[in-house]
Amino acid sequence: MDASILEAKWSRFTLTLALAAVSMSTAAISVYIFKRKTNGLNSKLSELEASLNSSLEKCASERQGRIRAQQALRKALTQPKCENPEMNHYPMTPIGIIQSCFSTRYGAPRQPLLVPLARACLIFNTSRVPPASLEGLAEYSHCWVIYVFHLNTDLEKLWKNPSKSKFKAKVRVPRLNGGRMGVFATRSPHRPCPIGLTVAKVEAVQGNMVLLSGVDLVDGTPVLDVKPYLPYCDSIKEAGVPNWLMEDNILAVASVSFSEDFTSTLKNCWTMAENKSLYASPDEFQGLIKQVLSWDIRSLSQRNRPHDAVSVKENAELLGDTSDKDECPDETARVHEKEQNSQNSQDVIYNLTLEGLDISYRIDHNSNVIVEKVSPFMHLSNDRNCCNYLTWKDKLQ
Ligand SMILES: *[C@@H]1O[C@H](CO)[C@@H](O)[C@H](O)[C@H]1NC(C)=O
Ligand SMILES: *[C@@H]1O[C@H](CO)[C@@H](O)[C@H](O)[C@H]1NC(C)=O
Ligand SMILES: *[C@@H]1O[C@H](CO)[C@@H](O)[C@H](O)[C@H]1NC(C)=O
Ligand SMILES: *[C@@H]1O[C@H](CO)[C@@H](O)[C@H](O)[C@H]1NC(C)=O
């Protein structure tokens, strides 16, 4: 045989051998892969089975839980009521306190947002409310504030002996000229549960404090809760009110002017307030005074009978009279009579305390307010050291 042919045959043989080897190993690999795949499938299957088992178990226990809860509910409903329903109390405690420009109730607006410059600092109790709770609040323009009518004189009676406290179902409404309405048709502070609701502008948030404006809250008001104001559901376009509310009672005054030496007196007094005040300067504070007095803040009885305002108040209290927010029986409006026998309402001097400063004014027959004097009246709380204008300066641009 030709050597070259032999060589070719040989090489073809080795090639075949090699090919066989290759295909055999491929087969072996495939078997291996198949085996692995099957193993994989098996473990997947048992995994699925296990998870199915566990969800079935969960379902069963949930069903059992539901059944148990339903049984408990049925049992509770069929059992006689708790002997003393007064014992079912909910121990709610204020979580914060208001430091407001309105040092006393007299002058606090009848409605929120009437006085844009009316500022208050809401200080949360950090042992109840960690500052992180306020994260995101500053992104809202307004918030609801739920608070306690802490100045009601009947509070203690109400808490301690609710069944004996003479709660009035109907209250006098200033707009009805003394007519009465069911308490839930009014915003009277004298309610079975003395909780107030107001809305305020969120100016800024810092640490455990919120600076609010447009407030109608008195200094020291305990706060139960704050919730963001959501215009898309909190403002109802087609909402209606009874006719008696349509009459104008907000009573804008004709003008507010200041006595000649008012500005200079205020500058002198300001040193008392400046380190604790929520206002930048005497000028800004004077702006607040003007806004507050742009509304006739006197109660109905003060307006009608300025000279016996105090005795009317006393009578009202004796009669257990309760009326709207501005007509509180325990509010002793500090009315000072210049001339005892004068029948002229413009001779009556009214005093109003803002930021601890006493402001006295007169109001004439044509509803012009003349702000006469300002004098230091009371010290602002020491809490104001950490919650004053400087605290907020950077955020109040
Ligand atoms: C799932 O439950 C069945 C029946 O109770 C049981 O036979 C099976 O072993 C369980 N499987 C697993 C993976 O727990
Ligand atoms: C803050 O809350 C704590 C715990 O409830 C309470 O002991 C403390 O008196 C509160 N502080 C103020 C200033 O209300
Ligand atoms: C207000 O603060 C300034 C600067 O810290 C201080 O000099 C001044 O005495 C303080 N005034 C009052 C009334 O505390
Ligand atoms: C009201 O203001 C006048 C004038 O400043 C003052 O004389 C009077 O004492 C004040 N009344 C009260 C009750 O504070």
Automatic annotation (TrEMBL):
Recorded hits in InterPro entries, A to Z, give: TrmO-like_N (IPR023370), YaeB-like (IPR040372), YaeB-like_sf (IPR036413), YaeB_N_sf (IPR036414)
Sorted alphabetically, which PROSITE patterns does this protein's record hold?
A: TSAA_2
| One Pfam family from the record | TrmO_N
Alphabetically list the UniProt keywords. Answer: Membrane, S-adenosyl-L-methionine, Transmembrane, Transmembrane helix
CDD domains referenced in this protein's UniProt entry, alphabetically: UPF0066
Domain TsaA-like as annotated: residue spans: 92-238
Does the record carry RNA-binding as a key word? no
For this UniProt entry, which segments traverse the membrane? 12-34
The record, for Gene3D superfamilies, names: YaeB-like
The family note in this entry says:
Belongs to the tRNA methyltransferase O family.
Query: What protein am I looking at?
Result: Nef-associated protein 1
Q: Which organism is it from?
A: Senna tora
